Structure formats: C-alpha cells, structure tokens
Amino acid sequence: MDKIVKISGCIGMKVLHNSTLNKKIFIFYDDHSNTKYCEKKSSVFISELFQTISNQDVALILEEPFMESNSKIKILWKESEHLLLFRKFYSKLINKCSKKKICKIFPFDIRLSIFDISPDEIIFNLDNPEPGYNIKLNTYFQNIFYLFDLNDYQPNPSSLICFIKKVFNIYKTSKMYKNLKKRIIDFNNKYNIETSKETIYDLINKYNSSSNFIYEEGFPYINNHNENFIDQLDKIASGIIELYSLILILLLPNKNMILYAGYYHSNNLAYIFEKYYSFKEEFSSGIIDNIDDKTQSQIKSCIKINADEMKFL
Length: 313
Prior knowledge:
Elements: E1 4-8, E2 12-18, E3 23-30, E4 44-45, H1 46-50, E5 58-65, H2 81-100, E6 105-109, H3 111-114, H4 119-124, H5 137-140, H6 142-147, H7 160-170, H8 175-191, H9 200-208, H10 229-251, E7 256-262, H11 263-276, E8 280-286, E9 302-306
Parallel strand pairs: 1-4, 3-7, 5-6, 5-7
Antiparallel strand pairs: 1-9, 2-3, 2-8
Helix pairs in contact: 8-10
C-alpha cells in the first residue's frame, strides 16, 4: 500500500528528472505567509521532513540568506510557524555541518552580498530615510556590474561577492547568463546608472507610487515589458539568485537535489530546468502553477505526497 505523507509548510511540490545527468530535483513551493496547515495529528512540517535526509545522497538548496558573518538582517513573516521551525532546523544543521566542515545545505539568496541596503528596507522607510540610503546609483550597482564583467570594480578578494563571481564565471557561456547580462545592460542604459547623480533612494522614491509588479514565468528569458524601476530591479535581483541556485543544482555531484523556495522562485526554476535543461516532470502535488489565478481561500500550506516515490524519505 502506498504511504501517503501530509506536509505542512509548502503549497506544492514537483519532481523533475534528467536521465542523462542522472539527477533528480525535488522542488517545494512555499507561500511564506500562508499558515493553513494540515491537521497536526496526521502530518509533519517541512523541516521535519528534511531532517530525514542527513545520511542520504541529497543536497538542500534553500531560500535562505547567504551572508557575511557580521550581517544583520530583519526577519520577515515572523508569524508563520513553518518558517520559525524551519529557521531553527536550518541554524542547527548549519552549525553541525560547519563543525564537520562538510555541508549538504546551500543557501542561495545572495542579495545581501549584492546590495549594501535592501531595496525593500528603503521602500519600508521612504518617509524616514536613513543617511545610508543616499548611495549613488553607480556605487549601489557596482556588485551587480562586477558579476557580469560590466565594470572595473575590484572587491576584497576574500569577500563573498568574489566567491559568487567565480561561480558565475563557470556559466558565462550559458543562455541564462547571457540573457540576464543583456537585461542588466538595458537596465543600465535606461536609467543611466553609471553617470547618474541620483541616489538609490531617489529612484525608489520616484517610482514607488507607480509600482506595477507583473510576474511572468521564466525571467530572464521572458519579462521585459514593465517600465517601473522597482519592478525591473526586483526581477534582475531574482534572476541573479535563480542563476546562482541553478548553477549549484547542476554542478553539485549529488544525484538528488531538494529546492525549497517561495512560489515564484520555485516556479521560475522549474520552468527553466524543463525548457532549457531537458528535465522532465515525474510527478507533482498541490499548487505549482497559476497561483495568481487563485484566491487565498484556495491556497493551503499543506500537500500530500507518496513516500514510495520519494527516494530521500
């Protein structure tokens, strides 16, 4: 008899397989603020599920911040029980593998290594700007331009941005890298970033009232229609962290890869792996597409999977 497992903390999951690479990707889609969980008596949280894989040939690719040891971040979605449990699990696992100096867990949100100040922080504090928000555009974007060979900036060789650059250099000839670089060049030309005397606060403040975010699957291949600075900045940042996670998944030697991220990142990466890297869907559960066509009452942070089809269980 099939073993059905109910999992709280994700709204959908999809399994992709590439027989040539002999690699499977288990993609878990999260709605960070959704707390409509399965009944606790007959289910497990996503963090409990992942605890079962420590001795398996599995690597975890997680939407967690990749940051310097002295970084200070503001935790979002503090009321979501599954994220609180997951952060405890993540911290415990990171500490454990750091001591052993062998890790199977890889954070992929590298925005803290790219931006000195998060665009979200500026948006949340537009009426009470900090002095540090007055960063000139060419300085604010120097790390992004550095990653794509668009300036002569030379960061500290021991910094995380230098490590990320080495990772990106591996895939400089890929279609995703080239298309994302083109988007960044167009973005630079549109807003005159290298020569502008405006600050990042000026641009975000200017465009915040006209924000018109449009999600389209598969950025950076599709998605160049919106004229809003904040929207395009968000898409470029998302494209960068999705490129980084894609490289990790393709190059790590593990046969089984688990990706756990917000719906949009998970959906974009599934699209890219299927369309451009010959991965095929094996099975899926829950909500994995067209989330914007659904009401909040239709979205539940609870999925059912067949454990007999999941090698890492």
